Amino acid sequence: MAPLKPVKSPYADSLKKSLNLMAPSMKLLPKPHFQATTTL
């Protein structure tokens, strides 16, 4: 999988917003699961 490049797009913006919304619930997850989801 290619490394992620910073891109200016509506998709990237909405992805960042959803990640910010999900961040609090992510912290409740076990760490291995959190690392697995962030490397997808």
Which features characterize this protein?
single chain, 40 residues, mainly alpha, 2 helices, 62% helix, flat
Written description of the protein model:
With 40 residues, the protein is an all-alpha fold. Helix content is 62%, strand content 0%. The protein has two helices and no strands. It is flat and about 30 Å long. It starts with 9 loop residues before the first helix and ends with a helix.
Oligomer type: single chain
Outline the low-pLDDT stretches: none
Strand content: under 5%
Coarse structural class: mainly alpha
Our measurement of the CA-to-CA distance between the termini, rounded to an integer number of angstroms, reads 9 Å
Q: What is the CA-atom radius of gyration, in angstroms?
A: 12 Å
The total of beta strands comes to 0
Gross geometry = flat
Q: How would you characterize the largest beta sheet?
A: none
SS summary, helix count: 2
- The helicity comes to 55-70%
Average pLDDT taken over every residue: 67
**N-to-C SSE string, H for helix and E for strand:** HH
Secondary structure: elements and pairs:
Blueprint: H1 10-26, H2 31-38
Q: Briefly, what is this?
A:
This protein is mainly alpha-helical. It is built from two helices and no strands. The termini are close together.
